[in-house]
Design brief:
single chain; 481 residues; alpha+beta; Amidase signature (AS) enzymes; 3-stranded mixed β-sheet; 16 helices; 12% strand; globular
């Protein structure tokens, strides 16, 4: 199979070719490896390639699943797998090997997928760009290599957009699936909190704000991936609301009920966002209205800066815990060469916080979650832009620049929040949210739109996505690599 043929299929389409005997899993893996190598200098998205492990899984006989034989990439953060080393985006963990397979990885394997490598991430997943020093070069946006691919699942976004694989793993603690989806012209979903398993190593990440997800080119691929992985694992501390039937069945049942959608073209701070983002939101709103949904101009009156302070405190504590544990395991005193400056600033903040401060931060996040639930009572969903502007130029968010920020809170509030003012809220509230690739600006850069639904209403969210995908198809749009 040639690469020009390969990219004409989504994940389910490639799996159908394997089932019919038109192509083999080994042949697909060869194409994926060739495309990873061919795009490496341009976008630097794929790391820790394990071809031997992938070939061995095929030779051993792949399970019969929705994606049997389809090449797949794991983010270089989470989705622990013994056969796939990691760096977690950090020199502190470079080459680290897990001693176990996560439940998520086992479920992906059971779906017949063929993982063969990992994709780049910022250090410990902190950031709206993927420019970690451990990789020696930044991950670039396939649509314009002078711009970021997003973060923290930026490598997955760049790899899928560049045609390395049709689908890839991501994770999302503040927009880390949806930001790359917006930046790279892909579909990305953060499911309802606890829908996907976190075990066996932990019960939750960042006080429940972080959850796994996927970067795809079609809604049906995301639905099938969620079907393959959803549900609690043994010992999970809490479960997502039960859903009636599978995601794929929900798509097959047709469009969603008539939805009442709140729409806002301003940041949650009340500030203006980039005109391209306003245009993207208005375009999506018109599409929804043409499909029969009710559009209401409304926005939640929440203290987003207070929320981001609480979010930052929780993330800082988690980062400090990770770094401190690693230093103890290594039995060494860390130097500035071991971690990046943004990580050191997060650790400084985390070390300054008490247990009471941490509990207070969780209480703030939960209180705002209740505010959002009340806001959505008269609505089904909230439509905004995904980002406050089109994909940034590379280097803007690197922490070692001369005009860098003084501390972690300044970094989040004054630099990241204006750029990404929408996505982190859904992580705090636990609501499902998605970024849709429905608009490209005059410079040819994708500008995503963001939809947040009520907790547990993931089926309706994907039904709306499928309806919009049919009305304004995006699959044929390819970056000029």
């Amino acid at each position: 199979m040639r690469i020009d043929e390969y990219v004409e299929f989504d994940g389910l389409g490639l799996a159908a070719l394997v089932r019919s005997g038109d192509v083999t899993a080994d042949e697909l893996l060869t194409v994926a490896l060739q495309q990873a190598a061919a795009t490496d200098e341009a976008i630097a998205a794929v790391v820790h390639v394990q071809e031997a492990a992938a070939r061995a899984s095929i030779a051993a006989g792949l399970p019969e699943g929705a994606f049997t034989g389809v090449p797949f990439l794991l983010k270089d953060l989470g989705c622990e797998a013994a056969s796939f080393p990691t760096s977690m985006g950090s020199r502190l963990f470079d080459g680290y090997r897990y001693g176990y397979d996560s439940e998520l990885f086992l479920r992906l394997q059971a779906a017949g997928l063929v993982p063969f490598g990992r994709t780049t991430s910022p250090e410990f997943g902190i950031g709206a760009t993927t420019e970690a020093k451990v990789y020696g070069r930044p991950t670039r946006n396939p649509w314009n290599r002078e711009h970021v691919a997003g973060g923290s699942s930026g490598g997955s976004g760049a790899a899928v957009a560049a045609g390395v694989t049709p689908i890839a793993h991501g994770s999302d603690g503040g927009g880390s699936v949806r930001i790359p989806a917006s930046s790279c012209g892909l579909f990305g979903v953060k499911p309802t909190r606890a829908l996907l398993p976190d075990g066996p190593a932990s019960g939750e990440g960042w006080a429940g704000m972080a959850i796994d997800g996927f970067l795809t080119r079609t809604v049906r691929d995301t639905a099938a991936l969620l079907d393959a992985t959803a549900g609690p694992d043994v010992g999970a501390p809490y479960y997502a609301p039960a859903m009636d039937g599978t995601f794929s069945a929900a798509l097959a049942s047709g469009p969603p009920r008539r939805l009442r959608i709140a729409v806002s073209t301003r940041s949650f701070t009340g500030d203006a966002i980039h005109p391209d983002c306003v245009t993207a939101v208005d375009h999506t709103a018109r599409l929804c209205e043409a499909l029969g949904h009710e559009i209401v101009r409304a926005a939640p009156g929440i203290d987003i800066e207070g929320f981001m302070r609480a979010w930052s405190n929780i993330v800082a504590c988690g980062t400090h815990s990770t770094v401190r544990s690693r230093a103890a395991a290594l039995g060494c005193t860390l130097t500035d060469d071991d971690t990046e400056r943004v990580t050191r600033l997060a650790c400084e903040l985390g070390a300054s916080l008490s247990g009471a401060d941490y509990i207070e931060a969780i209480d703030v996040v939960h209180a705002i979650g209740r505010e959002m639930a009340r806001f959505l009572q008269p609505f089904d969903m909230l439509l905004t832009a995904t980002l406050g502007e089109p994909p940034a130029v590379l280097g803007r968010f690197t922490s070692d620049r001369a005009d860098g920020w003084a501390d972690f809170l300044e970094y989040r509030l004054q630099h990241v929040l204006p750029y990404s003012p929408f996505t982190a809220l859904a992580n705090g509230t636990g609501q499902p949210a998605m970024s849709l690739p429905l608009w490209w600006n005059a410079a040819g850069l994708p500008v995503g739109t963001h939809v947040m639904a009520r907790a547990g209403d993931d089926h309706a969210l994907l039904q709306l996505a499928a309806q919009l995908e049919l009305a304004a198809p995006w699959f044929a749009r390819r970056p000029p690599l």
